[in-house]
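Data's thin. Show one?
=====
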Amino acid sequence: MEESAAREEGTVVVPATASETSPERPWPLHRLSENLKLHIERAPATWIEGQLIEHKNNRGNLYMTMRDLEEEVSLPLTAWRAVAAGIDPSVQQGSRVVARVKPNFWVKGGRLSMVVQEMRPVGLGDLLARVELLRRRLAEEGLTSPARKRQLPVLPGVIGLITGRDSDALKDVVRNTHLRWPAAVFEVREVAVQGPDAPRQVAAALAELDARPEVEVIVIARGGGALEEVVLPFSDEALVRAVAAARTPVVSAIGHEADRPVLDDVADLRASTPTDAAKRIVPDAAQESVGIREARLRLAGAVERRVRGEADALAALRSRPVLAHPHVMVDTRTEDLGRWQERGRVALGHRLAREADAVSALRAQVRALSPQQTLDRGYAVVQHAGHVVRRAEDVTPGDDLDVLVAAGRIEAYVTDVTPVETPSPTQEDA
């Protein structure tokens, strides 16, 4: 264990911590190994899951290598004799297991190993229970709801197909699709469809096809097989979530009726077999041709009936008196128009006469109120310095005045001013 201060080992002062070491003051190798052992063995025992790709028995001790179920990651495991004796005999190379392991560091060899304290095989029942648990969890999240499933295009331009390498499923989908619609175009991705690497490869192919805008539907197809080969790879959580997040509609054609993989629930459409998928993604050209011929016949019949009906209606219209003698209607309208014109002429004359009288009255009223009319009656307008004189006190003797009369102006000179006395309010009240 590291100490808080440097201490002497023999005659050499050794740094207490790794951060205090330097080229001049290094740690001896055994010091590093001892510290590593102390740190590593502090880690608690952990349950892990994977597949055994190596399994060797040497004098009762088991030496194994476990690989991750999704990633290319492996780890060596050691089960000493006492623990190995209690491991189920069905655990062999290729088995899927869960193990409780604790890290161990061998100081002399400088090697890290994982010591198995307990190991159990993962049975098919356990795996199916996990599948059902995942199915319920996705249902609670709404990822299996019919409301979020998208409609397939009526006739996809490019069909993405993810299936096994040179598999019967690939041939079934392509052959039956071309039988129904010979012009169908495929973009095929051949991947592993069983084994621990299958979900990752399928998800990668799905992402690649989903990124291509010309691909309008993606089919994930696999033929029949054992339950664990069909259901488990296509019930991988990462894969089914990738399908749920895809922008392109996805068709699941796994072809296992007894136990459906979770992919069937999340996909936009479930096909019972690859052949059934081919029937779902494209229409039948022969049926469409028959339908087009029938539609053309129905359309021709409808047009013929419509033309016949319109011809009968036109004949009926032509036989009416108004069309047989159309001048009668014109003559009638001509007489009506003459009466309306005369009526309008008379009404307009009356209106003009009334308005002329009104204008004359207004003209006389304006003339009576005009200043010139006042001047014509003998009144005058007296101005001093450009202002109208209204009171005698506004001018003084000697001021020049300008007097405007009805016809002309008069220049005048003030000789005397006689203001008019205004009675006081007291006198008026009295």
Notes: Residues 1-10 have pLDDT under 50 and may be disordered. Residues 7-122 form a domain with the OB fold (Dihydrolipoamide Acetyltransferase, E2P) fold (CATH 2.40.50.140). The CA atoms of residues 62 and 84 lie 6 Å apart. The first strand starts at residue 7 and ends at 9.
